[in-house]
Amino acid sequence: MSEVSTAGRTGLFRPLSTAGAVATVLGALLPWATFVFNEGPYPAKATLQFFDAPFALSGFRLHLMLFGLAALVVGFTRLPGRGRVLRALGWGVLAVSAVNTVFLISNGGGFGAVSASDGAFAFGCYVGLAGGALLVADNWHASAEPLPRWKFSLPLWAAWLVLLVSFGAVLLLVAATLTAGGLGGAADPYAGPVFLSFLGAAGGLLGGLHGTGLLSWIGELSEKHRLFSVLVLLLCALGLPLTSAGNEYWMTVAANIGVYAATAIGLNIVVGLAGLLDLGYVAFMGIGAFVAANLSGAAASALGIHVPFLLAAVIAAVIAGIFGVIVGSPTLRVRGDYLAIVTLAFGEIFRRAAQNNIGGLTGGANAIPNIPQVELFGLEFNNPVTIGGLQLPGGVLYYFLIVLLVALTMVAFGNLKNSRIGRAWIAIREDEDVARAMGIRTGKAKILAFLTGATLAGLAGAVFAHKTATVSYESFQFLESVTLLAAVILGGMGTIPGAVLGAALLFVLPEKLREFSDYRLLLFGLALVLIMRFRPQGLVPDRHRRAELVAEDVELPAAPKEATA
Amino acid sequence: MSDTVQTGKPLLEVRDLCVAYGAIEAVRSVSFTVQAGQIVSLIGSNGAGKTTTLRTISGLLRPRSGQILFEGRPIHTQPAHAILGMGVAHCPEGRRLFPKMTVEENLLLGAYTRKDEGIAEDVERVYDLFPVLGERRGNKAGLFSGGEQQMLAIGRAMMSRPRLLMLDEPSMGLSPIMTQRIFDTIRDLQRLGTTVLLVEQNALAALAQSDYAHVVDLGRTTIEGTGHDLLADQRVRDAYLGEN
Ligand SMILES: Nc1ncnc2c1ncn2[C@@H]1O[C@H](COP(=O)(O)OP(=O)(O)OP(=O)(O)O)[C@@H](O)[C@H]1O
Ligand SMILES: [Mg+2]
């Protein structure tokens, strides 16, 4: 291990890191903009002068202040994993500073906004950037430090309490992230940058906590108390309407994310487990959506019959599954790149067919509008509900339905992954030839992967149709398939939290970045390239992939080499 | 070494096998038999068609012509999983483990076609045979040394409870000592009732361990005899044992 790089850095005092922390604090206190923007001050109290009101900091400057103070304190302790924590904080500071600097420059009409104009000075951003850079640079080799492992065991009640608090914190963080920047539009003109900046801060925070070993410990704890964790997680998900995200708008956003998360988990079976590259996956969701729309009794539907929602969802899933088998069959003959082309072609065929109102089933350019809301157990799903005096916003029932959908796909995925067929899929992904030699019927297994993935997508599509009330071919473009694929890869192939996180990020970003719509794809692409370069295993890596990386740090028991055996 | 005489119904019989990759005829005319309970090897130089022969027996390739009979029944038209189900296991050239999976997961994949209760027991049996694997059952297969990987590859193949175990160059890249260990293991497996079809470049070691052997040359079986006889055969000595 690189002792050279850590030598001399193990002392208590780390001048560069401390300087970075101080710079970060100063950066937070310095003014960031030379004038007040037309749409309103950005950031809040942007032109606040040095030390005007150190306790009145808000928004990203408050984040910077907290990060700076944290780095200052951590820099003087013997915290295990200190370098990792400092580096993560540094990245957070850099990200927050960079986002806001870029926005101030572009929206403020040039460098005048962040330097000097009309006798006003604003150098906060440079000091902040320098602080972050110092922290990162001084701890560049922190990966050489072993990740601290928390070993102490807890009595059952304490473990449950820790899990409860942790998942509660996750819920609050999710709610805060979702609502960061507000609704956008005239009310919140800076939704985009505020959100991105918050994302940077959240990333830095999580990275810092990970550096202390806390997150791995909680992960192990939740694995040990699996059932309890799943229940608490479900409760937390159902509790989102009670947080700051508890209004109709955020419920809708969250429900949309959920639909795509469920679809991404389905795709994760095909791509992540079986290793089959599917570039037309969203078509299966589309098939499910159109089937459900036609069975919903909507005026524009060709069939004109109204099937109860649950039955319609099952039929949609089955029909999508059948198409999955039809598309999957050529995989018996083609491998690798050719499969990608076959699925790409299928996706395009589906979209063209839907655009041309094939069989009068898709409404063509008119789409199928006015799909009636779901009615289950006498509840109308668009309406707000009151449970025991608790006022829940409209759309909350759809949100609950979709949480259930995501939970269902998670359970399906988890069980499949650890089953016989799951092992067969992974074997096919790793080495198809040997998989055959092990007696795995690779053709059958691949078709089964397509069938399962398509069925889940069809189910998600049926919910989607009722939730959005309009189904149009435009929702099922190639770009959607690519985004789903990106969600799977970004989050970490073959893992559930990965797919959910990836879907959440990729489908919330467009929502949040509407004012940057021209650059959206560019930013997307850039983020993907960066992640693939620096974290190829994805945000939440698979156990196998993680083991690979751990293996570099951990001393293995000396393997007897055959020469000496 | 026992100089067994070839009698009775063979476990495996390959008749005039011809296998081609497109226009390339890798195997032109290969014929041999494997008696139950024996260790039979195929030796021959690079590109002679040994691997192709094994892959065809296990159903990964289809022959252009010829027949493969296992216990008298033709299997060359059967799919790979059916052949494995009949009791023919293939330990491929270059080990081909699933490197990202643990030892245990590799072994479980070896038992993929089985649905009986005895799988866990057989996993333990492999650990008894190779204690190194048992000590590190949770480790990723890719982290093991070449010799240990070969043990795991053999263990994985044994997990299907085969009656015929086909090993493709198990000594590849191993030191003489480790090679000896692997061959000792093969002997043990034979003693426990498994018939072995062995493909080897290392002709000297293979012949010394084999009850019977065939030379494959340019896609044809040429010379055959007991391991003992071939070791003494001048043509074999000249061509494959590095003597002039
Ligand atoms: N997939 C393939 N496509 C085309 N030709 C192949 C393929 N695999 C093998 N061959 C050719 O078939 C012939 C026999 O190959 P094979 O691998 O069976 O030889 P081998 O006896 O196992 O050799 P070695 O001892 O080097 O492993 C060679 O000429 C080889 O180039
Ligand atoms: Mg070979």
From TrEMBL, chain A:
A GO cellular component annotation in the UniProt record: plasma membrane
Pfam name, any one? BPD_transp_2
Give the protein's recorded name: Putative membrane protein
Q: Does the keyword Transmembrane helix apply?
A: yes
Q: What is its main location?
A: membrane
Q: Where in the cell is it found?
A: Cell membrane
Supply the InterPro entries for this chain. Answer: ABC_transp_permease, LivM-like
- Sample GO molecular function, one term: branched-chain amino acid transmembrane transporter activity
From TrEMBL, chain B:
* Family matches, as InterPro entries: AAA+_ATPase (IPR003593), ABC_branched_ATPase_LivF/BraG (IPR030660), ABC_transporter-like_ATP-bd (IPR003439), ABC_transporter-like_CS (IPR017871), BCAA_Transport_ATP-bd_LivF (IPR052156), P-loop_NTPase (IPR027417)
Question: Can the keyword Secreted be found in this entry's annotation?
Answer: no
Read off the Pfam families from this record.
Answer: ABC_tran (PF00005)
All copies of the ABC transporter domain together span 12-243
According to the UniProt entry, its GO molecular function terms are: ATP binding; ATP hydrolysis activity; branched-chain amino acid transmembrane transporter activity
What are the TM regions of this chain, as residue ranges?
none
Q: Which SMART domains match?
A: AAA
Please provide the Gene Ontology terms (biological process) for this protein: L-amino acid transport
Q: Which UniProt keywords apply?
A: Amino-acid transport, ATP-binding, Nucleotide-binding, Transport
**What family does the database annotate?**
Belongs to the ABC transporter superfamily.
Q: What is this protein called?
A: High-affinity branched-chain amino acid transport ATP-binding protein LivF
